[in-house]
């Protein structure tokens, strides 16, 4: 995953355009807004850019993006991030936007990680919603006290006994990358089969990672922070493992979440926009899978077009001296 | 929406009275809803990612293009489950919030 950290972005920020969602639409929008001379912040609830592509199918080949006869999902995301990078957008990753408040001349957005962004306009590229990690059924009270859903900085777990829960690619990747750092790594999955690349499965079995399948987490305990985890198999076998960290990698669920509370007109759980991608709210536009209009089709290529259309209209809104028509990027 | 279909992925007869729910655990759109005796896929919420299909131990889930002849009716049944009745479920935007619906499409409950 392209780990563009939120580092440097303070809790208070002022930009011309805030883009909500760093999927393909939001990333292309960030490039385009930079090209139109705007300062840009991009917020995403996930710790990495790429939206559905990065979260759901980074290894699949995509055949219908213009200019790429075939492109691996993550490669497309990397290229989009590289293209946007030219204008130095500020990334707020791990920031779910919860509120959008109007102040007349601007909009103030608040994130669940405590950032406040004042923006001349907002482009909602929220896709099918916020990706939130699927919760472990037990032990949620230990969240951030030993229980975690992401490991952005592996070295934080150095020397610890780590239990990774899950059977997909990210569970296996984390188990493998922590193997050399952690004091011990145990991988717990509730089914016998892993749903991950065969090569990773082979690597895990060949490594020092202890694999427990089919086992489920029954209990997490510890005084304040995690110190122990109990896992149980369906036939009642129980194992108690010492653990200072439990990494729950159970995949993601997309949830429209806060977007529904922003007073935006919705149709079939999508935001209604006009021909300029404007919503019913002043200074708020929408593009990509989250937008709806008659004839809408949800595809990456269409999201690109919508992002460019929205940003050109936003340019004219923010500076009436600006034309909607951008001129040609090749002339720049 | 992708393609010209009622339901991208369809749950069929083999789920009835089994409801192992592996599919629910996999679905990133949280669009697989629990009726009484079987589960149903909400067509507007499904993003056609295909994750549910291989995890079903009953081999009950099919892409609508691969539906076996005898299961064709379930495409309509999955779609209608959300639209039928006096207080249709519609598109609630997440099965976790809704929980167990507790009734089935009339052709299934029978
Ligand atoms: C398996 C699969 C295969 C596909 N194959 C293709 C294909 O071959 N070709 C094609 O064109 N399309 C394909 N698609 C569809 C394509 O992935 C989507 O159309 C595309 O990802 C939409 O991009 P987006 O940027 O609009 O939204 P998304 O990619 O959904 O990104 C939205 C981002 O917004 C973030 N977000 C949402 N709400 C908030 C909030 N409140 N605060 C902060 N962040 C928020 C989310 O975390 C997410 O990262 C496929 C989809 C799937 C699932
Ligand atoms: S995994 Fe198969 S049997 Fe289990 S609930 Fe889903 S469709 Fe039904
Ligand atoms: S195809 Fe994907 S989104 Fe659709 S029901 Fe299956 S798991 Fe859910």
Which tags fit this structure?
heterodimer, A: 332 residues, alpha/beta, FAD/NAD(P)-binding domain, 2 domains, seven-stranded mixed beta sheet, five-stranded parallel beta sheet, 6 helices, 21% helix, B: 110 residues, alpha+beta, two-stranded antiparallel ribbon, two-stranded antiparallel sheet, 5 helices, binds flavin-adenine dinucleotide, binds iron/sulfur cluster
Describe the structure.
The complex is a heterodimer of chains A (332) and B (110). Chain A has helices spanning 24-35, 51-56, 73-85, 169-179, 198-206, 300-318; strands at residues 12-20, 40-44, 61-62, 71-72, 90-93, 97-102, 107-111, 116-124, 130-133, 147-148, 161-165, 184-188, 210-212, 215-221, 228-233, 238-242, 245-248, 252-255, 266-267, 270-272, 284-286, 291-292. In chain A, helix 1 runs parallel beside helix 3 (73-85), helix 1 packs parallel to helix 6 and helix 4 (169-179) runs parallel beside helix 5. In chain A, strand 19 (266-267) and strand 20 (270-272) form a beta hairpin. Helices cover 21% and strands 29% of the residues of chain A. Chain A has two domains: 12-131 and 253-318, 3-Layer(bba) Sandwich (FAD/NAD(P)-binding domain), CATH 3.50.50; 135-250, FAD/NAD(P)-binding domain (3-Layer(bba) Sandwich), CATH 3.50.50. Chain A is α/β, with parallel strands linked by helices and 332 residues long. Chain A is elongated. Chain B is 24% helix and 11% strand. In chain B, the strands form two sheets. A two-stranded antiparallel ribbon of chain B has the order 1-4. Chain B has 110 residues and is α+β, with helices and mostly antiparallel strands. The mean pLDDT of chain B is 89. The A-B interface holds A 52, 55-57, 128, 131, 134, 191, 195, 250-256, 260, 268-269, 297-299 and B 1-2, 22, 25-30, 44-45, 47, 49, 51, 54-55, 91, 93-94, 96. The complex binds flavin-adenine dinucleotide and iron/sulfur cluster (SF4) (2 copies). Residues 8-9, 26-27, 29, 31-32, 41, 46-52 of chain B line the site of one iron/sulfur cluster.
